[in-house]
Write a structure and sequence with these properties.
The chain has 2 domains: 53 residues, no CATH class; 35 residues, no CATH class. With 89 residues, it is α+β, with helices and mostly antiparallel strands. The protein has 4 helices and 3 strands. Helix content is 43%, strand content 20%. The chain is elongated. A 3-stranded antiparallel sheet has the order 1-2-3. A hairpin with a 2-residue loop joins strand 2 and strand 3.
Length: 89
């Protein structure tokens, strides 16, 4: 599936048209998600490529897992999931 072509078609032929007047904001509100979902995510959900829209906390937890700041002797050590990455004075 060519996501760029599908997204372009939806933006050009479906969104903001007076027949049904779907807007991205109305679709976001109908999805009841605690963050701004993208048109791509909406299309992926329609085609069954994703089972649900991930909540904001999911992205925050992923960030915390991938990057953890540890303060040690006045320095912040940046530790990533895959190992040590650097020191900030």
């Amino acid at each position: 599936m060519e996501m760029a072509r599908i997204t372009g078609y939806v933006e050009g032929n479906i969104l903001d048209k007076p027949e049904e007047f779907f807007t991205l904001e109305k679709l976001r509100a109908a999805a009841h998600v605690d963050r701004r979902i993208t048109l791509r995510e909406i299309i992926e959900k329609i085609f069954g490529m994703i089972p649900y829209f991930k909540p904001k906390t999911s992205f925050l937890m992923k960030s915390l897992i991938n990057l953890t700041a540890v303060i040690c002797q006045g320095r912040i050590l940046f530790i990533r999931k895959n190992g040590f990455q650097g020191i900030h004075p």
